[in-house]
Design a protein that fits this description.
Oligomer: single chain
Number of helices: 10
Mean pLDDT: 95
Bound molecules: glutamine
Distance between the termini: 64 Å
Low-confidence stretches: none
Strand content: 15-25%
Largest sheet: 7 strands, mixed
Number of strands: 9
Strand order of the largest sheet: 5-4-3-6-7-9-8
Shape: elongated
Length: 272
């Protein structure tokens, strides 16, 4: 396809879903990385391409996340398979990964791992570490297992179907979690994209803080001395979650911001 043709497809898509998404969907339909789009030529543009592109624009128009249409999301340093069974990893969650990597650990526990984005990124970055990754959804664990294989860390990852700490054993240097933190009464007002994600990954069906109550209260029993707990939070939840960690006897409680300068992570350490 000639250059005007390519920009024609892009313009047509951009009018329907915006330029950024159109570019990613066009590249996907053509089977190339977005950065390679300008290298496409006429031979790459088949009728099947046009159908695939149109179908993906239609899915995006009704609100389906780009990651579901592509089947993946790039997160931290890797590409993660993403389906409707897991939370679509968000860029702001990379903040939690970076904070977790600021100190050493040999063992980690990722509660409610979903796609495995957090726990598996940490295992990949620390080649000697081992981890337990839990979820309440077997379908989510399947996605996480697939991602562990793809990242080459499956020998160091154990997957457990579990409701927070229920049925778990052992003590860890690091506990991480991005639990559901949207309050039930906030769900109706959210972006329509969220309607395509698992509801149990988004809301606790309560005040948005119930997962933190369990995690903070029980973390001590699963942390090594001087072990760390890091959780992602909604941007208004910092003071409450920090207080829960202090009440649980943890030290060095810190609320960390994301790149938008919003509170995003609360971190604490068990006394040595
Ligand atoms: N970060 C998600 C959002 O607000 C919520 C995920 C969660 O509840 N952990 O879109």
């Amino acid at each position: 396809m000639s250059e005007p043709g390519l920009s024609g497809w892009l313009a047509q898509g951009a009018a329907r879903v915006g330029a950024t998404d159109a570019r990613r969907l066009l590249a996907h339909a053509a089977g190339v990385e977005p950065s390679r789009l300008t290298l496409l030529d006429a031979d790459d543009i088949t009728e099947a391409f046009a159908e695939r592109y149109d179908a993906s624009l239609t899915r995006r128009e009704v609100g389906e996340p780009v990651s579901h249409i592509l089947g993946y999301r790039d997160f931290f340093e890797d590409r993660f398979a993403v389906t409707a069974d897991v939370l679509d990893p968000r860029p702001e969650t990379e903040e939690l990964v970076r904070a977790a990597l600021s100190a050493p650990f040999a063992t980690l526990l990722d509660l409610g791992t979903g796609s495995g984005a957090i726990g598996l990124s940490l295992l990949k970055a620390r080649p000697a570490a081992t981890g337990v990754l839990t979820d309440m959804s077997e379908a989510a664990l399947q996605v996480a297992r697939q991602n562990a294989e793809a990242l080459g860390v499956s020998a160091r990852a154990t997957f457990k179907l579990a409701d927070w700490f229920h049925g778990l054993e052992g003590r860890f240097d690091l506990i991480v979690s991005n639990p559901p933190y949207i309050a039930a009464d906030e769900m109706a007002g959210l972006q329509r994209e969220l309607g395509f994600e698992p509801r149990m990954a988004l809301t606790d069906e309560g005040d948005g803080l119930s997962a933190y109550r369990v995690i903070c209260a029980e973390a001590d029993a699963f942390l090594q001395p001087a072990g760390r707990l890091l959780v992602e939070i909604g941007h208004m939840q910092g003071p409450q979650v920090a207080q829960m960690m202090r009440d649980a006897g943890l030290d060095e409680v810190q609320v960390l911001c994301d790149l938008d300068e919003r509170d995003r992570v609360v971190s604490a350490r068990k006394p040595a």
